[in-house]
């Protein structure tokens, strides 16, 4: 029988898909690494698996243990899946800008979720960094993976995402583009691709306007999962040749185009990364092969990016779109 023994075995080996429509008029090949094919629906399954496996080896978590982590949802899903398999309890701490659907998914996997305000400074006692620290210290047998400092985060990409992309493109990749959140994806994947290509592959980070990676002060932006107000240890800026700043509006409009034109229903950080990739493509050579990583699917954003009213409230859609009547669709 062709069966998989565990959902965990399905982490990684995601497909590389050519973008055909949003690339119209651009000569280089643009390929999307579609991470929603992971069993938890995002790129974060990769880091969850490696962080837990290594923690077990290092004796940091064992039977009866609890995983405590500040996460915008995707890392939580990955950790929840790995934890459920091994019988660990999960407590996740999320900022309040995260969509309700994402929180419901975490709870569905049996995790407990604590929501914290986005507007307070990182060192404020109610910030999601502080709350998760406090919980990790007080819950007996708790272990905090800390995706912002854990070197197994970039390492998982160095060992899986990077080699997959190199093999899938048969070494023809010339540019790698990814959003920067913890920086794990770009650091691990970019480092591997640079090493294996002898420094030939260019690595380009995509960052929300206002975030520190592209020179901002940490001013709030709406794209979820990317951008920071502090510099995490998991991001090695020497791996990035360039960081492109993209506005919320451009990120969300591209996210909607990806759904309509490429039938890729993906999250806002995917629109951000593709927008950056297309800017790179506009100045690249026809024989160049640009790979852009799409971290997650779009179902968690239906009430926001894919909701016309929400988009109009923020001024991202110019014309108010009304629900079509039966006469309109005839
Ligand atoms: N997009 C989404 C939706 C994410 O959840 C994350 C992870 N925070 C990223 C992009 C960025 O990935 P990384 O943390 O590896 O930089």
TrEMBL record:
Q: Which cofactor does it need?
A: pyridoxal 5'-phosphate
User: What are the entry keywords?
Assistant: CBS domain, Lyase, Pyridoxal phosphate
Q: Which residues form a coiled coil?
A: none
Q: Which GO MF terms are attached to this record?
A: cystathionine beta-synthase activity; transferase activity, transferring alkyl or aryl (other than methyl) groups
Q: What's an example Gene Ontology biological process for this entry?
A: cysteine biosynthetic process via cystathionine
Q: What is its EC number?
A: 4.2.1.22
Q: In which pathway does it act?
A: Amino-acid biosynthesis; L-cysteine biosynthesis; L-cysteine from L-homocysteine and L-serine: step 1/2
The highest taxon in the source lineage is Bacteria
Entry GO terms, CC: cytoplasm
Tell me what reaction this enzyme catalyses: L-homocysteine + L-serine = L,L-cystathionine + H2O
Please report which protein family the annotation says this sequence is part of. Answer: Belongs to the cysteine synthase/cystathionine beta-synthase family.
Output this protein's name.
Answer: Cystathionine beta-synthase
| Lineage summary | Bacteria, Bacillati, Actinomycetota, Actinomycetes, Streptosporangiales
In terms of the parent sequence, the fragment covers 1 to 330 of 455
């Amino acid at each position: 029988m062709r069966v998989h023994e565990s959902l965990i075995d399905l982490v990684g080996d995601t497909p590389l898909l050519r973008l055909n429509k949003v690339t119209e008029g651009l000569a280089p090949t643009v390929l999307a690494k579609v991470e929603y094919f992971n069993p938890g629906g995002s790129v974060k399954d990769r880091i969850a698996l490696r962080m837990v496996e290594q923690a077990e080896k290092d004796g940091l978590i064992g039977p009866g243990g609890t995983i405590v982590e500040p996460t915008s949802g995707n890392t939580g899903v990955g950790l929840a899946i790995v934890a459920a398999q091994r019988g660990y309890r999960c407590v996740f701490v999320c900022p309040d800008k995260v969509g309700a659907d994402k929180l419901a998914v975490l709870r569905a996997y049996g995790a407990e979720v604590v929501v914290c305000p986005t507007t307070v400074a990182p060192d404020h006692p109610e910030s999601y960094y502080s709350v998760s620290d406090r919980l990790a210290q007080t819950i007996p047998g708790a272990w905090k993976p800390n995706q912002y400092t854990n070197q197994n985060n970039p390492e998982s990409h160095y060992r899986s995402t990077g080699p997959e992309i190199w093999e899938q493109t048969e070494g023809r990749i010339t540019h790698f583009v990814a959003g920067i959140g913890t920086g794990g994806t770009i650091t691990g994947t970019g480092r591997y691709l640079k090493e294996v290509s002898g420094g030939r592959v260019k690595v380009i980070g995509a960052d929300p306007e206002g975030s520190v990676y592209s020179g901002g002060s940490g001013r709030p932006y709406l794209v979820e999962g990317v951008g920071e107000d502090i510099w995490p240890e998991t991001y090695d800026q020497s791996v990035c040749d360039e960081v492109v700043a993209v506005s919320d509006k451009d990120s969300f409009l591209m996210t909607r185009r990806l759904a309509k034109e490429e039938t890729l229903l993906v999250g806002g950080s995917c629109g951000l990364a593709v927008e950056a990739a297309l800017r790179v493509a506009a100045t690249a050579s026809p024989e160049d092969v640009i790979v852009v990583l799409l971290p997650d699917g779009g179902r968690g954003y239906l009430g926001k990016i894919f909701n016309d009213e929400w988009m109009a409230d923020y001024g991202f859609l110019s014309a108010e779109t009304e629900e079509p009547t039966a006469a309109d669709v005839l």
